[in-house]
Amino acid sequence: MIKASIGAVPGLILSFLILAAVLAGTTALISRARKKPLLLPVLLAICMAGVSTVTLLPSGAGTPVGQCDTGLPGHVLTSSSSLLNIGLFAPGAALSTLLFRRPATTAATFVVFSGLIEFIQSVTPLGRSCSVTDVTANSIGALLGVAGATVWLRMNDRPLRRPLRDLAWAAGIALVGSAALAGGFNSQVKGINVVAIDDSRQAFGDATDGSDAWLSSEAEAVFGPGTHATETSAEKDGSRWKISATTNRGTISGWWPDRTLEKAWASNNRGDTGKLSGAQAGQVARTFAEKHFPDSLAGSDQTIRTLGDGSDAAYLVTYRRHRHGVMMPMRLDFTITKTGRMIGFTSKAVKDPALPQATVTENTARAQAAKAAGAKTTSAQLLAQQVGGQWRPVWLVGANNADVWLDGVTGQKVTPDK
Fold this sequence. Notes:
Number of helices: 12
Oligomer: single chain
Low-confidence stretches: 1-5
Strand order of the largest sheet: 3-4-5-6-12-11-8-7
């Protein structure tokens, strides 16, 4: 608060000097009229002028009106701003204790005063930041000032004034002040946990540090030299982050910190006029897969299909892996033009699950599906699917323009998880 105020509040020094002169002059006149010592009252007046100008002078920064940071003050003893707050409130509390010799009342008054300052900052358009951390730092400063002054009084044989009454006044001020502030904050102020937000942002930055550079490099490998990201985003998924980027040539996404790509698609998704054969397109895809998807490539079968007609057609190169006649959940697809340009790819890198042995044959599955759909079947494929969170061998049978899913072990109709 103070550090920001000095740089952000116009006329802070001048305002302090004017207010200090007014308060100190008035205090000196009153003390002289009452024939009391001048030094402590005048110094206390100057300290309060400093507290008032630093905390309540309008500024162009801060949280919106009606909000206050309610985050736990975990950095109160390590933050430079909080340490400055402690230093701001300690002298006034010490001088007040020396002047009135009522430490409990002084401590309670300064703590409530600190809360009042934050409340005023939150409900008025001063452009100041209200926070629990500031209240805590101010209160720590006040308590340190009171403690230091109390020790000095005892060391110099200066007795405290009416200790029991001092405690009674302190309890009353604390009770009434805290109740009033609690009511005011509950009715007028909305709490926001800025500390948690900042910590979350810091954790996000630490967790994804380096991901942008990695994905930009991969985008250039896919789309060619001169590719640069125009927008990036990150979304947490369990212990990983899905990193996505929009580039001047297309979109790409992958997983961090795994450094595994998920998919990419070029902005120019039309075929190119060229003479590349299907086998050559398959080699382009394999070379890229060997570097980026070796686990998916191992044990997989490659299939090449032509998309479109003529010299500007493209090739769809797919990789699928089968275990005991069951297609595993891994998926890897590439779209390659006849010039060898990669339009895009999609990767679903899933480890082969352990499955029970399928006992339902294709003929049995087709017969059951045809009966359920009331029509002839057109296709049947045995896939590894999750059903109720468990991996199962499942027949996907096409019949009557519909899909029928049958458990490969029990033959019962099932609905795979989305």
